[in-house]
Amino acid sequence: MFCKNCGEAINDNQAICLKCGVKVGDGNAYCANCGQAVAPEATVCLNCGVAVTNQAQQKDLDGKLGNYDKIVMIIVCLFLGGLGIHNFMLGETKKGVFKIIMSLLCGIGGILALIDLIKICMGNYVIDPEKLV
Ligand SMILES: [Zn+2]
Ligand SMILES: [Zn+2]
Fold first, then answer.
1. Which of 14, 33, 53 is the last residue of a domain?
2. Domain shared by 44 and 68, yes or no
3. Residue 83 lies in a domain
4. Ligand 2 midpoint to CA 108 (Å)
5. How far is residue 96's CA from residue 113's CA, in Å, rounded to a whole number?
6. CA–centroid distance, residue 46 to ligand 2 (Å)
7. Same-domain status, 115 and 68
8. How far, in Å, from the CA of 30 to the mean position of ligand 1?
9. What spacing in Å lies between the alpha carbon of 55 and ligand 2's midpoint?
10. Residue 128: inside a domain, yes or no?
11. What's the half-sphere exposure (Cβ side, CA atoms, 13 Å) at 38?
12. If you write DSSP's letter for every residue of the chain in order, what string do you get?
């Protein structure tokens, strides 16, 4: 990945950029995915198409998912994930319905929920009401 402040290439395990000293993930001048300069207000990198999250959004993702604490979502996903309850809570009706159907038909709703659970734990979960899984 790349420093969002100066665009220098950095390792995933680095905590701060060795070139500018800014904490990894801070800054909004460069794309963390490809290192191209992006406009501070941009939401998507025009070079690689990856979503550019600003500092405020990043912090929000750390402790929260949608309007809920991440911990709450992890617990809900763990126990009720197979029925897509966490999806309904996040406004992802399509995903929720899809999981219920998958659970009833072939019992793989739980596996899909497990994938969601891992994403939530890793902070990689993206709320998208338009997608099925
Ligand atoms: Zn830097
Ligand atoms: Zn990019």
1. 53
2. no
3. yes
4. 34
5. 10
6. 7
7. yes
8. 9
9. 16
10. no
11. 29
12. -B-TTT--B--TT-SB-TTT-PBTT--SSB-TTT--B--TT-SB-TTT--B---HHHHHHHHHEETTEEHHHHHHHHHHHGGGTHHHHHTT-HHHHHHHHHHHHHHS-HHHHHHHHHHHHHHT-----TT---
pLDDT in tens, 65-81: 888 889 999 999 999 99
Q: Which residues pair with 37 in a beta bridge?
A: 30
For residue 36, the CA-to-ligand 1 centroid distance in Å is 13
* Residue 75 alpha carbon to ligand 2 centre in Å: 34
CA of 15 to the centre of ligand 2 (A): 20
84 and 108 assigned to the same domain: yes
Task: Report pLDDT digits (tens) over 45-56.
Answer: 999 998 887 654
Amino acid at 69: D
- Asked whether the whole model's pTM tops 0.70, one would answer no
Distance (Å) from CA 130 to ligand 2 centroid: 23
Integer Cα distance of 45 and 4 in angstroms: 12
